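Q: Here's a chain of 264 amino acids. Please give me its 3D structure as tokens.
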Amino acid sequence: MRATDLDRCRSLPLFANMRPESFRDLTAGAHLQRFPAGTMLLLEGDSVDFLYVLMEGQVELHGTWNDQETVLAVLRPVSTFILAAVVLDADALMSARTLERSEILMIPGDAIRRAMVDDVQFALAVSRDLAGGFRTMVRAVKNQKLRSGVERLANYLVMLRASDAGVGADVILRHEKRVLASLLGMTPENLSRAFAALRKHGVSVNGSVVTIANAPALTALAKPDPLIDNHAPRDGDIVTAADAEIWSTKTSRAEIARRAVRQA
């Protein structure tokens, strides 16, 4: 790896507090690669030889069964993936492919496991990353099981609007509708029906642009819940899923404190 690439990697939260010698050993066999859109990086059931760190681009994680495929997550920078499998030296439970031109850091799995034993700060960072991923998964499962398709779509739109404070009435869908439908646990046809159902709540859609003419009405339908939804903006100090979880907890506790003061 080039010195400039090593500096970029060193600044990532997962590696920032490692001892210099531990980081040097960890990255000795690592490489930074650029992949075109549509590249299959990993197939479910494969042995996992590397930890992947998404530096630029987008990666889709998906699973298959009985000729069916579902999207589990769409990752944006900076994200690690397949970390749990690397820690356990286990086979992959999901496949990964790039959705656009992506830059990915690949670190040998055995180097990750050695570094976790030798460097306590790195082990803590790995635990933090896994904790962020676990809480994100719990939120997704609650969202799928406790809400209807229309409510899931409404909350997704509320999240898009909240995560970018600079937007007006229009928000841009981050994924093509086939991917979005799978992420929300519905078919493309049901996604179209859900958008149609949101018209009476002030929502209209034109391609990837969604206009929210009546944000209070959409929010009233969505009923966002801090124990399900995470509206953390991904900028500044909020880089990873763990950062977003900490932001969400602090924001929720602050709101509870403000309500208690108002009621006192």
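Q: Can you summarize the key feature?
A: The CA atoms of residues 45 and 92 lie 5 Å apart.
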